[in-house]
Amino acid sequence: MTALFMMVAAAPVMADSAPPPAPGAIHLPMRLVPESAAPRAGSTVTLAIAATPDKGWHGYWKNGGDAGLPTEAHWTLPTGVTAGGLRYPVPGQLKIAGLMNYVYERPFALLVDLSVPAGLTAGTALPVSVKLDYLVCTDTICVPESQTLSTRLTIGDGAIDPSVRAEFDRWRAALPKPLGGEGVIETRGKTVRIAVPLPAAVAVKDAYFFPDRSGIIDHAADQALARQGDQAILTIPAAAVPTPGPVSGVLSIGEGKGLAFTAKPGAIADAADTSKGFGAIALAFLGAVLGGLLLNIMPCVFPILSLKALSLARGGGDERHARTEALAYTAGVVLVCVGLGVILLALRAGGQSAGWAFQLQDPRVIGVLLLLVAGIAFNLAGLFELPTPAFAGRSGAMGSFATGALAAFVATPCSGPFMAGALGAALVLPAAAALAVFAGLGIGIALPFLAIGFIPALRRRLPKPGMWMVRLRHILSVPMFLTALALAWILGQEAGVTGMTLGLAATLLASLGFWWTGLRQHGGKGRAFWPALVMLVLAVAIVVTVKPAAAVAKSAADTAFTEAKLDSLRKEGRPVFAYFTADWCLSCKVNEAAAIERSSVRDAFARNKVAVLVGDWTDGDPVLGRFIERHNRAGVPLYLYYAPGAKEPQVLPQVLTPSMLEKLGA
């Protein structure tokens, strides 16, 4: 309190003409409002200290900045009742005479939770009072004030009046949202840098960092914000006498919205220097290489790899030829993977929360892939033969490049071990490091063919050409036909029965063209490929008419979380996976990209009939907020699994893996 009276004494020096306050006047009147006047025994009830500053006056946040003090609350409570800490709304800034103050110039409310002991009988009275000591100021004078507020609670059924609930919803919406991820703070000389995990898609307006304590930054100095991938980097002059250690605070992102987070001391890599995060980058790169390597055994890649490898057996032992083809194939694979990565990062920088295989969210792309895979399958089955491109030349380098590009593009619907974590990590790395991870995926896909091309011993182990290769081609057509069937199913999921019918009709039309071309090839006629080309153009024209919107709208409506929908699904006896997310929650987005939105997880949920509900807390929906709080969480992410017949949900870890989700409902 000594500092408070020193400030009061100093205030008139700032403006000697300021009139003295009237004796006993209250310039920040407050009232104590319980959310429920009849809380249940053993529950928690929220109280609001609602304050309305007089015109020209302001109250202070928990860290007043250069010249303010927090509110002190001294509770008088019944036996067994305990009060939590005060929760403050996002403050504003007020700079006076070079001093920065963190203030409230408009009506605001401090929230506090009271824990009511169990075992109390209905009708038990719980008198509650609190003595509040605080500072209230104008631009020219500060006054310490004190108020004692009281209310009376009665043990009951926990009912909440709708008008009171609406008021508390508005007060809760003004609180900063807890950011799931942890930040990093680094002091370099007289500059403090703070890295906040924040998805690139989140718009930030007039960003400002409010630290919970002094001794971190120069409160009155300007703050600079830079976006670095999925991080927001604040650069602020340090306090005159900095105190090291972790810091908590609120990042204001505009329009009264703020994100609460904690930052621990550490190193922050510059945008152009990823060496400080080399370990994380190397791990993600290795995971991408392993994931790409394992993709080669997937039905969408293995037939292409097998035939390309056996083509070297036909080529004999020419070392130069083998290496050239291997390098060209690798270049095609890596170029497509990096190209998709560039598009993905550009979409995310433009505000879209896209993930790997983002193009598969458009049913028109699924339709084109269906035609492509069906064409490969019919070629393997012997219906027609692909002509050797004129540009392939004697070395076949261009042909190998095209085959590699084809293999990478066809591989996008598939996913495998190691890929999820690696590509999820790539989304939070700087752009250069992320592209290195995407290149690692391409290297992994190309690695078997690269090894065959550069290691003569492996080529010598390849079987010699013969009629068995024809039979093998026919066998390899089966996994490609299965891949086409899976793509048709995905098309139906995204565009409904009409979209799937159009896709199958286009495939049938293209197949007729392939068959006609095969007849002309077997008959030795010239320009045999023209029927297939014409039919393929018509088929593509059909699939590009498939509308992507209908399925998306239906999915969003079906999966939006409400407690009524949850209760209905549980009464049906269905297992339910409910997850709660927000656009500004980086850990949420990483989990979604790395685990929840994987095709293997969607397939497992479909097999096990697991219903999925999504609670979007981006705008701080108070209804979702109360539901989240009931599960002992202050914010997102929150992952819940409701097994059939279980009374309580299983709270899943905040770091998810595909295998963890695939087991749900099994």
Automatic annotation (TrEMBL):
Keywords, ordered alphabetically: Cytochrome c-type biogenesis, Membrane, Signal, Transmembrane, Transmembrane helix
Q: Which GO terms describe its molecular function?
A: protein-disulfide reductase activity
Localization recorded for this chain is: Membrane
Q: Thiol:disulfide interchange protein DsbD N-terminal domain spans which residues?
A: 34-151
- Outline the extent of the Cytochrome C biogenesis protein transmembrane domain: 286-487
Membrane topology (UniProt): Multi-pass membrane protein
Do you know which SUPFAM superfamilies this protein is assigned to?
A: Thioredoxin-like
Which Pfam family name is an example for this entry?
A: DsbD_N
Tell whether Membrane is among the UniProt keywords.
yes
UniProt xrefs under Gene3D superfamilies: Glutaredoxin
In the record, biological process GO terms are: cell redox homeostasis; cytochrome complex assembly
- Organism superkingdom: Bacteria
- Per its UniProt record, what PANTHER family does this chain match? SUPPRESSION OF COPPER SENSITIVITY PROTEIN, THIOL:DISULFIDE INTERCHANGE PROTEIN DSBD
Q: What is this protein called?
A: Thiol:disulfide interchange protein
Q: Which organism is it from?
A: Sphingomonas pseudosanguinis
